[in-house]
Records
---
Amino acid sequence: MRILRFAQDDSNVLRTLGAVGPLIALLATCVFFATRSDRFLTGDNLSIVLQQVMVVGVIAIGQTLIILTAGVDLSCGTVMALGAIVMTKLAAELGVSVPLAIAAGIGVTTLFGFLNGLLVTRINLPPFIVTLGTLNIAFAITQLYSNAQTVTDLPEAMNALGGTFRVGGTSVVHGVVVMLVLYALAAFVLRETASGRHVYAVGNNPEAARLTGIATPRVILAVYALAGVLYGIAALLSVARTGVGDPNAGQTENLDAITAVVLGGTSLFGGRGTVLGSLVGALIVGVFRNGLTLMGVSSVYQILVTGILVILAVATDQLSRRGAR
Amino acid sequence: MAGGDSTALVMEARGLVKRFGHVTALDHSDFELRAAEILAVIGDNGAGKSTLIKALSGALVPDAGEIRLDGRVVHFRTPMDARSAGIETVYQDLAVAPALSIAENLFLGRELRRPGVLGSVFRMLDRKRMREESTAHMRELRIEIGSMGQPVETLSGGQRQGVAVARSAAFARHVVIMDEPTAALGVKQSNTVLDLIRRVRDRGLSVVLISHDMPHVFEIADRIHVARLGKRIAVLNPRKISMSDTVAIMTGALAPDEIAADALA
């Protein structure tokens, strides 16, 4: 009896930890680096962290939606790179107007998201395999279309979101605002609308969702397509930040986006988590990279730390689930 | 409760046939459900009771035969058809989403939106109203749960089943079909759910109860529909027949015409 009660308390503790844990981890990380480097807690440095996080942050919104349905998208970063190549090539080399080029790039990433969704819902393939396939397809198309060359000499308008405005003495990149607005929008839809709650229901208990009349395949298809739209917007941010179309972009984002979502407390088993958690997760990774760089630690250690964090986050999720059963 | 022929039939099926390849799961089966009664459907494995229930709830389409609801012929193609006709089904495997709140589960797929622009343009959910209506509804069914905002996974098995039953009772206009509602539950929790089923009937809904549990069937059923070899072989009055004779009829050890006439309902 005593043991039983203890076990129950344990699971509650873990569940609560799942909700506020990421935020505590982020704060702890910030405190740690603030004591290690005088430069860490400056406005300019924090602005740089946000700027470095904005691309993976936007991708992570799409990734969160997909993981909430108990899926996963390994192709996210690569599809973003394809979108970036399409929009830059159209604008810089084919003389297409900037808005149209951007629309075409987002169109292509949306198409890929839609394709992922179709394969998952119509042919019932596991998302892991589907997106592993589209990861390679998107990568190959990107390399072929760009001849593996970086696209440069972009029209000025293409980089507009890379421009800055000043808040107090700190300059903030427009793209960061775009990211924050998208997070607010996603959080609103997931929390306050029926469609959002259906995403949770589909991931949590697909059978129950179906039996209550929710069109489960339609929800999943919409989520993958919407993720594609977000990858397109991330592509635009990536172009604006770097000023070029890079065919080799997105390689680290593929897994970093999943890392951000998992660190943010969203369950890989679906149905649990929040999109704002993913923002916190992306910031944790960003702060770690930034802080370790400021301390002069080699980037290999940054990767090592990220790996350990991911396993810790997934283990917490797994243990809290075992407690809940 | 077990009235004569004058009792109105809420739902009726005649000559239902369903074949799966060489197997005839339903072989001209009949079915009659009266207003505000609990009708237990029993039968051995392979007797065709789950096929019958699936036909009634729209989960499958029979090859032949007709189903009437309130005297009108209905053709259910999907569970949604049955639901919009006023028939709700509670499934065996506790069909709730554990991570969502009680109120969210009660209104899953039928969410209420806020009035005005917030609801029509911004599609915002009316959480407050859903929570209030959930509370009122659960209180009416005397399901005691603290807060409608707590996730279903924090509830016991009996309470979870209570949520599933309450959801069906809230939206059904004619019939609630319950597939083994007590199968996963302990004794005390089962009793709570049985009480709940009685209250659903007392509110005027008809309940179809599929169960293997004879004591539960005898405790709450008004009539017992016995399925055997794809047919309805008898409808029994649980107050006039013993549990062992019922099981004997169900398994074929006893023919329905061998029992006293007043045991038939």
---
Amino acid sequence: MMRRFLPVVLLVAAGSLAAAEFTPLDRIEAQRLLSADKHRQPTVVTLWSSDCGYCKANLKLLSSLTRNNRKLRVITVAAEPENAHLWPMLSRYGLAGPHYAYGSDSPEAISYAIDPNWGGELPRTFLFDGAGRKERISGVLTAPAIEKATGLRF
Amino acid sequence: MNGNKLAVVLLRVIFAVKQSLPQGGVLLPAVVLALVVQGAQAADAVPTMRPAKAARPELGSSAVFAPDGTLLAVAKQGEHVMVYRSSDEGRSWSPPAVVNAQPEAISADGENRPKIAFAADGALLVSWTHPFPKPNTGSIRFARATDGQTFSPVQTVHRDSAEITHRFESLLVMPDNRVILAWIDKRDLEAAKANKAPWRGAGIYAAVSTDGGRSFQPEHKLADHSCECCRVTSAIDADGAPLFMWRHVFEPNERDHALARLKPDGTVESVQRATFDRWKVDGCPHHGPSLVVDERGVRHAVWFNQKDGAGRVFYGRLAAGSGISVEGQRQVGGPRAAHADMAVAPGKLAIAWKEFDGERTQLRGLISADGGDNFSEIALAATDGASDQARVIRRQDQLFVFWRTEKEGFRLFPLP
């Protein structure tokens, strides 16, 4: 009952209640999510937002790569609080998740925990090879760049 | 919120819930009640207060001093733009006045905020972006209060009514009672997309009023290929020409800044590249510039760019000529400095920005008494929670920093 009801509440209350699609991100979870030693398989953490057109290109590419190689794990982080725009924009890419959105923690504290050297530009992507290596890329990704950083072949 | 408006909101909520929930269900009355209670709390709250479980408020605000020295702030509260007044430099605030009698969605987060200014004829002017339901679309809205209190019906400043991007407006008032708004506009991008043609970035359009904002002439284009979602800034040049500055996308994908000089009728005289940091990225910096012209006619700007691989806030003077050259470019603040703003008063130039230190967001300032050759840095404030961008504002010969934070509300810091 509650699950069926939630999107309606979200629509009406413009995100004043949390929906189930996104896990709220705080600074502690952000730091854990971006630690290379926490990723034991090739993983891409991709930051996006509803006003970032270039982010759609990355989500589309990552979506197709996960279909080509099931070893790739894609974690999405919306760099904005959960709102009614987010899930309709993200769900079309069929990414398994997990999916995060900025929670009630200070947005600047969350961004700092993600990457102290990040200036807020989007898309911003962190690529882990699962063996301790981590790369950062701002802007639109290419398949060869993802192959190089994750060690996977697509 | 008065009783009538509350009733309208209540009816809208009931209608929306009924539309969205065909099977009704026992939860309906409880949800409506909860929403009404929440709405009432939000509407009654002063900016420093926040209902315990409400969504994060959108903090985007602007401030200006009235000719009589009163401080005015503009911010959104639900579906209304509100004007707050303080006669004691921000220590206490009057109950807010509603700008838009008819409720509507309002953008007031990140690079978005309502703007406030006084026209040359003394009228109070407010502008904002009204987002449409489709993401990243909206219209530029404008209201004028001739007596400084009672606002005329809200007008959309552009004739184009397509459900596309008209967002991130900049409001410029001229001494001859012209009012010019320029904004990011995607009509040419949409046309290119319809023809399956490639298009770089968005565009900048402007609308001119010659009667202090009572009416606007049809809008016209200032430039193609602006960046898509960074705030736009404006100033008046040494000879009185209107200036607008924005983040641009220079070929192939260098997100430096452009400066447009306008003719008296508001059409473009020139558009020149204004910064040369060559940040190549297919992405959204979410970081627009600020521009001022001092009493000697020198243009000063602050902006954010990635240069040599590091994202930094920069200050520089934009020397006029056949091409703009940047003089005295220097870094502002540390590696986490963000969203700088600037203002000038006779003999004074001030920059303010925020900078996260690992624990808290610091508000810091740079003051120059020699036209930007030398600066002294000062710490102004800090906050634990979310915060708006800082605004530097002027009252006669004195400069202040206005900063809205989630925990502390509106605050004003006089600069030395």
